[in-house]
């Protein structure tokens, strides 16, 4: 029986593979503790290849931040907002869409690691710009004023933190304080 020839990955496919591995590694260990050789191992490539694709660990982390923030924007843009929806209804639709993001636990973790690594000038510049875009998108898609957009973003970050702590989302650990918050959020969204 002849061996099946292996299909070579394109550079774009390999780059996506490395980016996916980087999301996994950075989500688990954070920016400072993650080593590029760990990312390379997860991606099945050499460490020099990772550096050739992305330059530095910092540049790779920034690419991961852009990927994750782009995913949030994509989730929000795909929200099923009725054409005649008022702001409250539109925010409810965005909230339901955000649940999709929270179910992929690595993504909220990257968002938190990005905020934590923002003292690094290059990381901070990108993180602030992307978070600002997400904040502006909330208002753009829903007609929310500053207070409504701030409350929505604040609740989103609370849920992001709770998901990272595994007290919200899939496989959540049930704790009284977390249940109280989640119940209050659910009751507050009764119109959704």
In short:
The chain contains nine helices and no strands. With 192 residues, the chain is mainly α. It is globular.
Give the total of beta strands: 0
Overall pLDDT confidence: 91
Separation of the first and last Cα atoms: 59 Å
Q: What low-confidence regions span 5 or more consecutive residues with pLDDT below 50?
A: none
Order of helices and strands: HHHHHHHHH
Protein structure class: mainly alpha
CATH architecture: Orthogonal Bundle
User: CATH homologous superfamily?
Assistant: Tetracycline Repressor, domain 2
Shape annotation: globular
Please count the helical segments.
9
DNA-binding region: 35-54
Keywords: DNA-binding, Transcription, Transcription regulation
Pfam family, one: TetR_N
Protein name: TetR/AcrR family transcriptional regulator
Mind explaining what this structure looks like?
- It is a single chain.
- The chain is mostly helical and about 190 residues long.
- The protein has one domain: Tetracycline Repressor, domain 2 (Orthogonal Bundle), CATH 1.10.357.10.
- About 75% of the residues lie in helices and about 0% in strands.
- The chain contains 9 helices and no strands.
- The protein has helices at about 10-35, 35-45, 45-55, 55-75, 85-100, 105-115, 120-140, 145-165, 175-190.
- α1 (about 10-35) crosses α6 (about 105-115) and α7 (about 120-140) crosses α8 (about 145-165).
- The model has no long low-confidence stretch (mean pLDDT about 90).
């Amino acid at each position: 029986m002849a061996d099946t020839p292996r299909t070579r990955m394109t550079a774009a496919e390999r780059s996506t593979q490395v980016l996916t591995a980087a999301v996994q590694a950075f989500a688990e260990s954070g920016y400072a503790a993650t080593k590029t050789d760990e990312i390379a191992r997860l991606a099945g490539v050499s460490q020099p290849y990772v550096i050739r694709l992305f330059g530095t660990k910092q540049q790779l982390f920034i690419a991961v931040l852009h990927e994750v923030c782009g995913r949030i924007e994509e989730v929000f843009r795909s929200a099923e907002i009725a054409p005649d929806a008022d702001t409250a209804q539109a925010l409810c639709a965005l909230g339901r869409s955000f649940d999709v993001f929270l179910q992929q636990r690595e993504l909220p973790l990257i968002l938190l690691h990005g905020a934590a690594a923002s003292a690094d000038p290059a990381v901070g510049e990108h993180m602030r710009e992307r978070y600002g875009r997400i904040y502006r998108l909330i208002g753009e898609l829903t007609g929310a004023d500053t207070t409504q957009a701030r409350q929505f973003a604040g609740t989103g970050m609370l849920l992001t933190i709770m998901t990272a702590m595994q007290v919200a989302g899939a496989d959540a650990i049930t704790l009284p304080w977390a249940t109280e918050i989640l119940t209050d959020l659910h009751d507050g969204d009764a119109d959704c």
